[in-house]
Design a protein that fits this description.
- The protein has 21 helices and no strands.
- The protein has one domain.
- Helix 9 packs across helix 17, helix 11 crosses helix 20 and helix 16 runs parallel beside helix 18.
- By secondary structure, it is mainly α.
């Protein structure tokens, strides 16, 4: 009864247009008030306790660092370096765009920010060099999804906070899949570019490549600081996020000088708005997770699945189907916050590594960002290119096949996501 009330209330509230955060919190409060022995007072205490989660403190700093890097000229310098490095290959500009998305994803932690920052620079250039606008838009729309897979990723931080797994292991688990997906997209571009008969630009000299790298080095160093600091044991993920925010400020204002002091209040305000939105959703979602745990809902589902005799591979198939459907209608953070508390205990009982589950969820969220009607990257790409939503969706569809193939590989070959964290931190 409690389970039915909780989920019916949540979906009913979302169906009538109530925001996800309020739907989660209100459904939890109604369930506790009328069908549970827990008190409303305990819920208010829990709501504030969740907001004090140490791991969540990384979110505002990563958001600020990403906004500082997006506002400054870091993206332009990364694009120039990518073109100098791989622009001479068949489909070189498109391949360079994917490489630039990978590099910028590693400093922004955001998929829409990656699409805006890189797309606003390279799409017009690709069209001038003979690529169709649809080809360029499709490549950037899908490559931009790497923003939530390649660490540091805000979605990964949220998953780690909800499931209480190591942020460091989660970040490390995203490295190999992120590089692998980037290479798969590059191979697909190289293959399709052969049909376009586009003459690639002349190969850059070693000196030109070095100069482009030197110009982008300050931005790329942020990745070294974050990842090296975490895995070298110098920082916790939260401390690394704070250091990255300070470093991004110094680079944007005093090194590159693309950001003026008087522009900082606006950047801080936008970062604060984003942070408040995310933290409010997270606080209500953790309240929702508390109710789930109190009522033993995930455990009951797990017992039913085990009683049916569902194998791990069948469970992962069901998980992918659920997540792909959910990704069509909700944004990544909301899906993680609603489904992770339910799926995590079940996966644990079936012997599935929670880090592996986290990567599977993130890859599904990537696909959700390029599928209508709520695919955020589609809307962002539409704004950057001036194309309507239908045109962008058609342009993104061929490249979506690459993401689906990648999802199957990541799901059923756990070593892709687990090899690196196990090598660095030891097997769990």
């Amino acid at each position: 009864m409690n389970t039915a009330v909780l989920f019916i209330c949540m979906f009913l509230f979302m169906a009538i247009g109530i925001p996800v955060a309020i739907s989660l919190g209100l459904a939890s409060l109604l369930t506790i008030a009328f069908f549970s022995q827990d008190s409303i007072a305990s819920m208010s205490i829990k709501l504030f306790e969740t907001s004090e989660h140490y791991t969540l403190m990384a979110i505002p700093f990563f958001v600020l660092a990403g906004n500082l890097m997006s506002t400054g000229g870091v993206a332009k310098r990364m694009v120039r370096f990518a073109i100098a490095a791989v622009g001479h290959l068949r489909g070189g500009l498109a391949i360079a765009s994917i490489l630039a998305c990978m590099l910028f994803a590693a400093v922004s932690g955001s998929s829409p920010a990656t699409v805006v920052a890189i797309g606003s620079i390279v799409i017009a250039g690709m069209v001038k060099n003979g690529y169709t606008k649809e080809f360029a838009a499709g490549v950037i729309c899908n490559a931009g999804t790497l923003g939530i897979l390649i660490p540091p990723s805000i979605v990964m931080v949220v998953y780690a906070a909800v499931t209480e797994v190591s942020v460091g292991r989660m970040f490390m688990a995203g490295v190999v899949p992120g590089i692998m997906l980037g290479l798969m997209l590059m191979i697909a571009v190289w293959w399709r570019a052969g049909k376009l008969q586009i003459t690639p630009p002349a190969k850059a000299t070693a000196g030109e490549v070095f100069r482009a790298f030197r110009e982008s080095m300050w931005g790329l160093a942020l990745l070294v600081i974050i990842m090296g600091g975490i895995y070298g044991g110098v920082f916790t993920p939260t401390e690394a996020a704070a250091v990255s925010a300070v470093y991004a400020l110094v680079v944007a204002v005093w090194v590159y000088r693309d950001l003026r002091i008087r522009d900082l209040p606006e950047v801080f305000l936008e970062s604060a708005k984003t942070t408040v939105m995310i933290m409010f959703i997270v606080a209500n979602a953790l309240l929702f997770a508390h109710v789930l745990t109190t009522e033993r809902i995930p455990q009951a589902i797990a017992e039913q699945i085990l009683a049916v005799g569902m194998s791990p591979w069948m469970f992962l198939l069901v998980v992918n189907i659920i997540l792909l459907i959910a990704g069509n209608f909700m944004e990544p953070t909301g899906i993680i916050l609603i489904l992770a508390p339910i799926l995590f205990p079940i996966a644990t009982q079936l012997g599935i590594d929670p880090i592996h589950l986290g990567v599977i969820m993130v890859v599904n969220m990537e696909i959700g960002m390029v599928t209508p009607p709520v695919g955020l990257n589609l809307f962002v790409t539409s704004g950057v290119t001036g194309m309507n939503l239908v045109q962008v969706t058609k342009a993104a569809l061929p490249w979506l096949m690459v993401l689906l193939v990648f999802l199957v590989l990541v799901t059923y070959i756990p070593a892709i996501s687990l090899a690196l964290p196990n090598a660095m931190f030891g097997a769990q």
